[in-house]
Design brief:
five-stranded parallel beta sheet, 9 helices, alpha/beta, 204 residues, two-stranded antiparallel sheet, 15% strand
């Protein structure tokens, strides 16, 4: 592989996710089939609308109340929803710092405004730096109104970042997203557990 640019996924690549912890909390709140709404590979309609920036947080909370028929306060839903996000690994973030001296690095995540506010604050609290400061640019699906694995989402990121696909490596833990990136002409690495970005040795 020869490349000048690297686009990283966030969840499952730079930031570990805990679906079990989140699901247990929703179960304890009375939503016993939360996995039917949201998993790594599938989201029900209004979850996808949230990721595309088509719903506000308030509208999302109301839709979840309607769908589940359980009257939970916004803050209670937000807290449970954010349990998906684990802490930042400082070694991985130091690795990004080293990579940024050799490559132009970018972030492209399927996420939503609730989660992004949470993980951006986590990054600042836990590393002393904003998440954006590690990258040339960051791209979130809710801001683009496009999401992986759609080819259009990758092409839009390339356009906005003024990148050539042939010169760019994309790293993600989701096979569908890797396929979409390859269809867009990107070089790819499918990062599967237990491997982490630290095993890639891209800065050597």
């Amino acid at each position: 592989m020869t490349f000048k640019n690297i686009i990283f996924d966030l969840g499952g690549v730079l930031l570990d996710l805990d679906f079990k912890r989140m699901n247990r909390q929703f179960y304890s709140l009375g939503i016993q089939d939360f996995e039917g709404y949201f998993t790594l590979k599938k989201q029900s309609g209004f979850f996808e609308e949230l990721e595309l920036g088509l719903l506000t947080p308030a509208e999302f909370y109301e839709r979840l109340r309607q769908e589940s028929q359980i009257d939970l306060e916004d803050g209670v839903i937000e807290e449970a929803w954010n349990l998906l996000l684990k802490d930042f690994d400082k070694e991985r973030m130091r690795y990004l710092e080293r990579l940024s001296k050799k490559y132009n690095i970018f972030l492209f995540s399927n996420t939503n405004s609730i989660h992004s506010q949470c993980f951006e604050q986590k990054c600042l609290d836990q590393t002393g730096r904003s998440l954006e400061s590690y990258f040339e640019k960051v791209f979130y699906s809710h801001g683009l109104h496009l999401r992986k694995p759609d080819k259009e989402s990758f092409l839009e990121v390339l356009r906005l970042a003024s990148l050539q696909a042939s010169e760019t490596l994309f790293i993600d833990d989701n096979a569908s997203n890797i396929a979409g990136a390859q269809e867009s002409g990107l070089q790819t690495i499918h990062l599967q557990s237990p491997r982490t970005v630290l095993d890639l040795e891209l800065d050597v």
